[in-house]
Amino acid sequence: METVRLYYTDSGLLEFTAAVAEVREMPDATHIILDRTAFYPTGGGQPNDTGSISGAEIIDVAEDEAGRIVHIARRVTDTPTPIPGRTVECRIDAARRLDHMQQHSGQHILSQAFVQACGAETRSFHLGAATSTIDIELQNPTDDDMRAAEEIANRVVFEDRAMHVHLVSEEEAARLPLRKESAVQGTIRVIEIDGFDWSPCGGTHAGRAGQVGLIAVKSFERAKRMTRVEFVCGRRALIDYRLANRSATAVARQFSVDRESGPASVERAIQEGKSLKKRVRELLEIALREEAGRLLDESPMVSAAPASTGALQFKLAKGIFPERDIEELRMLAWKIIERGPSAALLGTQDGSAARLVFARSPDLPFNMGAILAKACEGLGGKGGGKPDMAQGGGPNVDKLPSVIDESANQILAAS
Ligand SMILES: [Zn+2]
User: Fold this and answer.
1) Using CA atoms, how far apart are residues 283 and 303, in angstroms rounded to an integer?
2) How far is the CA of 84 from the centre of ligand 1 (A)?
3) Roughly how many angstroms between the first and final C-alpha of the chain, as a whole number?
4) Do 11 and 204 touch, CB atoms closer than 8 A?
5) Inter-axis angle of helices 262-298 and 235-254, nearest 10
6) How far is the CA of 96 from the centre of ligand 1 (A)?
7) In angstroms, what is the span from residue 234 Cα to ligand 1's centroid?
8) Which pLDDT does position 351 carry in this prediction?
9) pLDDT of the residue at 309
10) Looking at residues 245-263, what average pLDDT do you find?
11) What is the pLDDT of residues 141-187, one digit of tens each?
């Protein structure tokens, strides 16, 4: 026999008594079936109620194929198992029920509001743990569409329109301006939001629209050729407002401006950051060009005579530059070798690792990639690159001066 659903006619009923019809002991839970219940089972996009049945904690509620509502109780050894035939006292978690009623009733209102604002029908509804979503038939959603639907929905809330439950025949239902067709046969349960919306639905609803509280669209996105609208109602809207206000205020405080000026201040700071970065790069180019010139002035002119080219004269610049990052060292190496026949052997210490950049001007034949690879072995690491520019490193920081000297000797040994 189907369970009598007390929530159909009274969604405010949170404490009730019922007779136990059946008890099933499952491996990790007790399943309880009552002759009547106010517990809402998961369905229609709305999650189940929780609560207790004669002290046993109800953690889930589902409907079976026979239309019976199964209350799933957590197994606790010291709670007596309900006995079939006995009357039990049942209690529903009021905060969870109110939350679900606010989101679910809010969905009815918002769905009708989207029909009136932009002719968009709702195709599905999901009541999530933090926010809910509806998928609506809207091809090119705009902020204005969202605001227009929000305005209509909240007007219905502020007018505190009554919400009625009608149990009607299929013929009677056919004469009502239903927003969507009923999926059930026989007696149809229709939820009317006074003069605004009529929808067949088996869920739990507020008695009046005022109980739903504020209805706010949080975001929207195109999804599967429809528009997915994320929204919050009632207490969730209050919590969301607090969070949004707190983060917006925190951002504004960083700039010592009022809350609404926060985004403009952030935008300005980002632009400033970008132009500063560009300016730093320009100044770095100038400084490194100067530094390269000075280094070359201080570096000796050397000779080498590789077999491939014969006698060559060039500048050999080498040095260790602590606190420089590898990118800056590369830039310095380029600035050196672009000034004439030269080779640069540069090192730095980056945290606990030694780093090397070796480069030479295009007119010299040395393979800096091979010379650097050998130097990196001496540092206990590895590296490589092209014949004219190579980089690498290793953990043996104290070997940095000696590997640079050895690399210099290797270049000069070609003579
Ligand atoms: Zn409903």
Assistant:
1) 34
2) 32
3) 104
4) yes
5) 40
6) 16
7) 16
8) 79
9) 76
10) 96
11) 999 999 999 999 999 999 999 999 999 999 999 899 999 888 888 89
Q: Which of 373, 370, 395, 371 is nearest to 382 (CA)?
A: 373
Interval between CA 45 and ligand 1 midpoint (Å): 9
For residue 392, the CA-to-ligand 1 centroid distance in Å is 66
Alpha-carbon gap, residue 240 to 99, rounded angstroms: 14
Record the tokens describing residue 410, joined without a space: 């290797």
Residue 232 tokens, joined? 């919050």
Residues with CB under 5 A from ligand 1 (ion): 201, 203
* Sign of the dihedral defined by the CA atoms of residues 239, 214, 46, 9, in that order: positive
Ligand 1 centroid to 101 CA: how many Å? 9
* Structure-token pair, residue 24: 């099933």
Specify the residue for token string 């195709």. Answer: 123
Instruction: Give the HSE-up count for residue 410: Cα atoms under 13 Å, Cβ half-sphere.
Output: 19
**If pLDDT is split at 50, 70 and 90, which confidence band does 308 have?**
confident
* Mean pLDDT of the region 226-244: 97
CA of 191 to the centre of ligand 1 (A): 7
pLDDT of 348 reads 95
- Report the separation in Å between the CA atom of 99 and the middle of ligand 1, taken as the mean of its atom positions: 13
CA 103 to ligand 1 center in whole angstroms = 10
Write the secondary structure of the chain as one string of H (helix), E (strand) and C (coil).
Answer: CCCEEHHHCCCCCCEEEEEEEEEEECCCEEEEEECEECCCCCECCECCCCEEECCEEEEEEEECCCCCEEEEEECCCCCCCCCCCCEEEEEECHHHHHHHHHHHHHHHHHHHHHHHHHCCCEEEEEECCCCEEEEECCCCCCHHHHHHHHHHHHHHHHCCCEEEEEEECHHHHHCCCCCCCCCCCCCEEEEEECCCEEEECCCCCCCEHHHHCCEEEEEEEEECCEEEEEEEECHHHHHHHHHHHHHHHHHHHHCCCCHHHHHHHHHHHHHHHHHHHHHHHHHHHHHHHHHHHHHHHHCCEEEECCCCCCCEEEEEEEEECCCCCHHHHHHHHHHHHCCCCEEEEEEEEECCEEEEEEEECCCCCCCHHHHHHHHHHHCCCEEEECCCEEEEEECCHHHHHHHHHHHHHHHHCCC
How many residues are present in the chain? 415
- Global pTM reads 0.77
219 C-alpha to ligand 1 centroid (Å) = 22
Please answer whether residues 192 and 209 qualify as being in contact, where contact means their C-beta atoms are separated by less than 8 angstroms: no
Q: State pLDDT tens for residues 326-343.
A: 999 999 999 999 999 999
